[in-house]
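Field reference: sequence -> structure
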Amino acid sequence: MKDQRSKDSLLIALASIGGMLELYDFVIYGVFSVYFAGLFFPNNNNFISIIESYSVFILGFITRPLGGICFTYIGDKFGRKNVLILTLLIMGVSSFGIVFLPTYYQIGILAPILLILLRLIQGLALGGELPSAFVLIFETLPKKIPLAFGVVMCTLNFGVLFSMIINKILIVNLTQTQMQTFGWRIPFLIGGILCFISYYIRKQLYALKDFKQIKSKHRYSLVNLFLNNFGRLLLGIGLASIMAIFVVSIYMFMPTYLKEIVKINAQLVGNLVIISMLCSSLSH
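Structure field:
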């Protein structure tokens, strides 16, 4: 019994930590775009550059449902564990891609195009990570679903909180000019490194005997999904979109609005966002 509890706890932890890191990698774009918007979307009006940059952020949300559909199907066919390993690898590679991405002033229009491509890839990876983690828990731990889902959702929010803490550390230790030249790349570098570390850990643990015995229990074709469950698919996308609107508005756009438009001190804004995110995480 004790061994089973340990195994269940480890499974929940693996599902939670991977999702947390991928959400961190996904949201840091919105948190730090205020610093690099003009480097990829040059415009005489800084506000317009920020809006253009946020449009790319929204593209990542658009591809999330597609990632959920595709990777869930892959999970049905090849196993949830393989998907959870693959999505971490994809997210890590795309984060490193942003770290080393040249700006508009170096390679011209190719810079925003590559940035958009990397954001689309990140959206696909995150869209595949979360549903696969939830389905793996649902199939493997049917008696602990409420607890497991609560832990996963709380940990996901800690991914956003982690991005806010990194933002706070950087704005305290770097000047505005340093943030705009190289500081904004640091969070993506941290995210990429952590993703690859988690990828290695997941791969090693899933290779253990206990985890090899976990098999996907349901297999449905994509045709069956669209023909027989299209209404539920739209409902799921709609519910997820509602949550995403609040997250983007409160934790992504509002700090930028307060700093750039209302001209409130950046450190004060950072403190307020961290406190609100901590309350949101614990409430799950």
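Note: The chain has twelve helices and no strands.
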